[in-house]
Amino acid sequence: MTKLNVIDPQQWVDNHADYLYSYALSRLDDEEQARDLVQETFLAALERVDQFEGRSSERTWLTAILKNKVMDVFRRKSMAFETVVNHADDVDFFDAGNGHWKEEYQPRSFGIENYDHVVNKEFNIVLENCMKKLPALWLSVFTMRHIEELAADVICNHLKVTSSNFWVIIHRTKVNLRACLQKNW
Amino acid sequence: MNKLEKIAYNCRKATLLIEKQQFGRLTMGERVELKMHLAGCSVCRIFQQQSVTINKMIKDLYNQKSVRSTLDGQFKHLLQERINRKLSM
Q1: Domain containing B20: what range?
Q2: N or C: lower Cβ tally within 10 Å for chain B?
Q3: What is this model's ipTM?
Q4: Which CATH architecture has domain A2-76?
Q5: Which residue of B lies nearest to A96 if distances are taken between CA atoms?
Q6: Which CATH number fits domain A103-184: 1.10.10.10, 2.60.200.30, 3.30.750.24, 3.40.50.300?
Q7: What is the full per-residue pLDDT of chain A (185 aa) written as tens digits?
Q8: What span, in angstroms and rounded, lies between the C-alpha atoms of A139 and A27?
Q9: From B5, which residue of chain A is nearest by alpha-carbon distance?
């Protein structure tokens, strides 16, 4: 019974629901789906309360369960894209022969170079819109890497991506995202 | 053209290395290649600076989004009831 001293399901909603909801919403951008995942997380956690060892906080433990559920959503969204190459929206920014930037796609300074963590709401709107334009698989890989800071092999396993494709995706995502920001900011 | 000369002109490769570098994944050889390329390519230097910045901005965006949302009270109430029912089963 000592485990029950550190885990208290009767307070879960008060203590963690908003936190978990925000976590899911920020990654999925879908309120209904985020709500569902919070509910599923609590119910799944109840099923395995006995596995909680008390080494991490209750919140950390619940977040880990939620994180897996978020990743399952990423995986389902990504399944539609079996191959990385030849996506319809994927323009080639580089000359096929020598690998130079094509003239029209060359990065130019556009005012983000000296970012100092001051939130700029207008810029964030542009950033979010640019992220929405990315193919689902790319966005999944990118989010898992940059937000969750998961290791490459974990992401590859989860999304069934080879490690060379992983780097291709990371690279193309950034090149596309950067171009979109330059164009729209 | 030898390998080092080739990278000196290849922005596609250089930008891929810039992304890998941000995960700390470059071999010694790759680090040298990238350094050589950047020394001679101002366009990729801009890319590198912006790429690092974009990563920071995305992280800040998500952190900021993570603190602001709340569930509606009715949903929370029903959810806690459901949990309590399961607990008493």
Answers
A1: 3-88
A2: C
A3: 0.80
A4: Orthogonal Bundle (1.10)
A5: B12
A6: 1.10.10.10
A7: 444 457 889 999 999 999 999 999 988 878 999 999 999 999 999 999 888 888 889 999 999 999 999 988 888 877 765 544 444 445 689 988 888 999 999 999 998 887 877 778 889 999 999 998 888 888 888 888 888 888 888 889 888 889 888 998 999 999 999 999 999 99
A8: 10
A9: A98
